[in-house]
Amino acid sequence: MNESPNDLNEKILILKEQRNALIIAHNYQRNEVQDIADLTGDSLELSRKAAETDCDVIVFCGVNFMAESASILSPDKVVLLTASDAFCPMADMISTGTQRESYWTFPGYKDPPKYVYPVEYTLRDIKRDYPGVPVVAYVNTTAEVKAESDICCTSANVAEVIESLPGERVICVPDKNLSAWAAKNTKKEVIAWDGYCHVHDKVRPLDVEKARKAYPNAVFMAHPECRLDVLEMADNVASTSGMLRFAAGSSAAEFIVGTEIGLLHRLRKENPGKTFYPLRKDMVCPNMKKTTLESVYIALKEMKHVVKVSSEIREQAWEALSRMISL
Ligand code: 13P
Ligand code: SF4
Questions:
Q1: Can you give the three-state secondary structure of the chain, one letter per residue?
Q2: How far is the CA of 326 from the centre of ligand 1 (A)?
Q3: Ligand with the closest atom to the CA of 64
Q4: N or C end of the chain: which has fewer CB within 10 A?
């Protein structure tokens, strides 16, 4: 398709009106996709806000588990995922044994992590190995994993969620780094799954030292999907929405941003007088970048790719999500 961005923008806006659609984009999406969206935010925030609107169609510019969350919270709306193959490798590092094939058998995945949890060991196995221990599932999980968990958490509330549970131990899936951060911030024993986000996990303390040397007056913000040794060097540890709030409220003028580089667009737009530096320029999530203006247009035009969580899974996954929301 040889359309200029302006033509595409106009076509998207016309189709959006015709379909009574809401376009929502995660904070890691391409700049031009964020700019066309009605809402930008973190995954749960987007799904919750979309559920409150009277739109008929939710166009989710993100990855598949996010569109599933939108379907769980808005079962009567049509949810479209703009890039059919946009997935989260970390979410697919855990399965219930019944869900779709795990990511390392996913065709075209070119950036395999160095090690993975054995594919034959599932959420059901860890529950069997720790009977009675409640399971906390990060929102970055499939609907099936949420359905088999006791409660969900976000990167912003993991410690609070863990504290709310009975007993002295919890199982926390799938992010080992988020689990390590949670363990540091609660008194409970956290049994961590061995998953991780390849975008955040590759950051090392040396990267922080280099950035601090280059920008000595900057405040360093880190996402809890980074390793604990990196988080311990941060001035602020926060989710993407938490970083936006922190930067807006801070009196500092310069910030080193320890998360996917897509967040820099909103940080810069919303804080014109402040300067933001990526911690590493290669903190890029290839799956988040699969959505383009063209794919947004095609999704709306052809009403694809529909993501619908089955009613049985939806009811159980909704329980886990709503337990967290009601905290
Ligand atoms: P948040 O926007 O919830 O902080 O999530 C980060 C992330 O990696 C989403 O895939
Ligand atoms: Fe998954 Fe990490 Fe990409 Fe988020 S940034 S979708 S956690 S791989």
A1: CCCCHHHHHHHHHHHHHHHCEEEEEECCCCHHHHHHCCEEECHHHHHHHHHHCCCCEEEEECCHHHHHHHHHHCCCCEEEECCCCCCCCCHHHCCCCCCCCCHHHCCCCCCCCCCCCCCCCCHHHHHHHCCCCCEEEECCCCHHHHHCCCEEECCCCHHHHHHCCCCCEEEEECEHHHHHHHHHHCCCEEEECCECCHHHHCCCHHHHHHHHHHCCCCEEEECCCCCHHHHCCCCEECCHHHHHHHHHHCCCCEEEEECCCCHHHHHHHHCCCCEEEECCCCCCCCCHHHCCHHHHHHHHHHCCCECCCCHHHHHHHHHHHHHHHCC
A2: 21
A3: 2
A4: N
